[in-house]
Amino acid sequence: LAGGIILGVALWLRHDSQTTNILYLQLGDKQAPNTFYVGIYILIAVGAVMMFVGFLGCYGAIQESQCLLGTFFTCLVILFACEVAAGIWGFVNKDQIAKDVKQFYDQAFQQALMAESETNNGKAVVKTFHETLDCCGPDNAIGAITPLWRDDLCPKGNILKGNIEFPNCHKKIDELFSGKLYLIGIAAIVVAVIMIFEMILSMVLCCGIRNSSVY
């Protein structure tokens, strides 16, 4: 059940419309940075393997097989080590993921402002960012200095009467990925706690079966 829950959360994060709209973009020959998906794929793998290993553990407990319970314990140790490694990787790269996406957006934004922007897809990429995240411009300073591009690139719903003010896309990108990584972190902690209890209980059961077989 825990493996199924983790798999479901990972698949939901993988096919979330906001992240897929942004991370599938391509600016000329350059693909949007999709390092974020590495953590998602690890969660998907862990969830799927946990479901298989769970069946193995249940069958071993029903059959009172020390061999199957020992294999179950070994698989849990390996999964736990992989999850800890993935957690360390995610903690180290959590700021870099948003930074890479912001740099990709800035490059597209600069191309969209260039006179020859019609020859590339910079405007299309920028519009996708703006419509998906409901924001406009890399920062408020640029928005105040260059008002001419806003009618062309910004979502119409963001235009206020009088002095136009737009949400910061850099901030929106930070909020998007910090929220998703927060969910991944919660799922990883839940899985780790469940795994620890599973390892303890499987060893207790295995030792109980071994001791009872003596009599």
Structural summary, described in words:
There is one protein chain. The protein is mainly α. The protein has eight helices and two strands; from the N terminus they run H-H-E-E-H-H-H-H-H-H. It has helices at residues 2-14, 17-23, 36-63, 66-113, 122-133, 140-145, 150-153, 169-214, and strands at residues 26-27, 30-31. Strand 1 (26-27) and strand 2 (30-31) form a beta hairpin. Helix 1 packs antiparallel against helix 3 (36-63), helix 1 packs antiparallel against helix 8 (169-214) and helix 2 (17-23) runs antiparallel to helix 5.
Short description:
The protein has 215 residues and is mainly alpha-helical. Helices cover 76% and strands 2% of the residues.
Could you list the spans in which at least 5 consecutive residues all have pLDDT below 50? Answer: 158-163
CATH class: Mainly Alpha
Which whole number gives the mean pLDDT? 78
Number of domains: 1
Radius of gyration: 24 Å
Number of strands: 2
Using the 3D structure, state the CATH architecture: Orthogonal Bundle
Walk across the major sheet and give the strand order: 1-2
- What percent of residues are in strands? under 5%
What is the straight-line distance between the termini?
35 Å
Question: Which structural category do the helix and sheet elements fall into?
Answer: mainly alpha
> Do you know the CATH topology?
Cd81 Antigen, Extracellular Domain, Chain: A
Topology order in helix (H) and strand (E) letters: HHEEHHHHHH
Individual helix count: 8
For the record, what is the CATH homologous superfamily label?
Tetraspanin
Organism: Centropus bengalensis
Disulfide bonds: 135-169, 136-154
GO cellular component, one term: basolateral plasma membrane
GO biological process, one term: regulation of cell population proliferation
